């Protein structure tokens, strides 16, 4: 999702994530949890079945990328979706 396998991501979301990771070694763990919460929320909102998994995964990726591109995000906890962890 973040284009990290290349060593140097080309996507803005991947670049921003590496910046967050430099500041906080728990950034990956926290983003992983946020991603699953986003996916779960979208899965339930769409009333998806396993046939829609790829659609839900694409929309999860799009939301993560949008949130990582926000200018006021300086850590994973600043992501709007981070609030999903505290429901």
TrEMBL record:
Extent of the signal sequence: none
Cited Pfam families: ELMO_CED12
Domain of life: Eukaryota
InterPro entries recorded: ELMO_dom, ELMO_domain-containing
Span of domain ELMO: 1-68
Record-given protein name: ELMO domain-containing protein
Organism: Citrus clementina
């Amino acid at each position: 999702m973040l284009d990290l396998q290349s060593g140097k991501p080309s996507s803005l979301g991947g670049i921003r994530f590496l910046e967050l990771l430099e500041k906080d070694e728990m950034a990956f763990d926290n983003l992983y949890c946020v991603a699953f919460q986003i996916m779960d929320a979208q899965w339930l909102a769409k009333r998806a079945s396993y046939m829609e998994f790829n659609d839900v995964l694409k929309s999860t990726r799009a939301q993560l990328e949008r949130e990582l591109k926000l200018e006021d995000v300086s850590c994973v906890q600043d992501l709007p979706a981070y609030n999903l962890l505290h429901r």
